[in-house]
Amino acid sequence: MARKQGSHAGITGPRVQDTALRLFAQHGFAAVSMRQIAAEVGVQAGALYNYTADKQSLLFDLLQGNMTDLMGGLDSADLKGPPLSRLEGFTRFHIRYHLPRRDLVFLSYMELRNLSESNYATIARLRRAYEDRLEAILLDGVASADFAIDDCRIATLALIAQLTGITNWYRPDGRLSEEQVAETYWGLVRRTVAARSHA
Hints:
- 65% of the residues lie in helices and 0% in strands.
- By secondary structure, it is an all-alpha fold.
């Protein structure tokens, strides 16, 4: 298959990543070949290596890019104020970020096993850094007596799993809007941390 006219790194590179993401999510990382990705993109299989070292690198770049964007988005959310306000900001940000990224969420949980040991360690560090941001809010809330939590680490993991799980069932054309879902989940989060009603 000939390389499409006008194809270059600025266009084809992102298309390679987008195509790999879609195929990995649909068929699983192990079942997708580089030749299949190349065919979908519209380049020769050998030309694919102009844009990525190998399939492992494609998966790692997708997951690392997602975590980098996630942390950058959280920084931009600029969560301030008392623990309850910061927790609400985190909750709404997490939902807003993840809902449009269903395939990336799937890869981030289901395909970690296919990362090399060093790549897995990198992604695990990035995930822990994100979790630590939420845990810090919970610890502050416990210290100020605004939250009643027995184990902030467990609560952190439970809340992230609860919030991320929305991507498994939410549909934009369903009966609830994204804002309605966020409002409902914020109520669930408040009750999970036993937030003081006057906080």
